[in-house]
Amino acid sequence: MASTVPLMTAEAFVPIGFEAPTSLRTDDFRLEPLGPQHHESDHGAWMSSIEHIRSTTGWTDWRWPPREGLTLEENRGDLERHADDFARRAGFTFTVLEPHHDDVIGCVYLYPSGSDDWDVMVKSWVRADKSELDAPLADSVARWLDTDWPWQRVDRGGR
User: Fold this and answer.
1) pTM
2) Answer CATH for 31-155 from 3.40.630.30, 3.40.50.300, 3.40.50.620, 3.30.2350.10
3) If I label 102, which of 4, 24, 69, 94 is the partner at 20 to 30 A Cα–Cα?
4) What is the mean pLDDT of residues 59-85?
């Protein structure tokens, strides 16, 4: 009997040949792969919203973002790691940008779940001054995962 489980690469958690989407657009925001080109705006976005992010559903049990923050250099290294994960198909991190300019207003993370119950763990945050976009972002990403991504069992972190 043929297997219904898609073939996976050793490092990736998406099927071989799967083309990962690289954008999502709504009237309120747009997503693109996070990379070092976003480091200053990304750093400013989360540094201005540490307590807000740490109190967001899905983040309350995490140690990120660190309360003391990170330097720009440390943040750039973190973004380089996320970009490398994307290139290797080991995880997919997207920056959330204003719809018509490159101001970072949040982030979305798609990574393998640490639980056998889930295929993917999804986390997202928005800046404190954009908190009204938290639910619309999470809902838009959920619909996007249903239509454009290969996973069946999505851990939305309580959303």
Assistant:
1) 0.89
2) 3.40.630.30
3) 69
4) 84
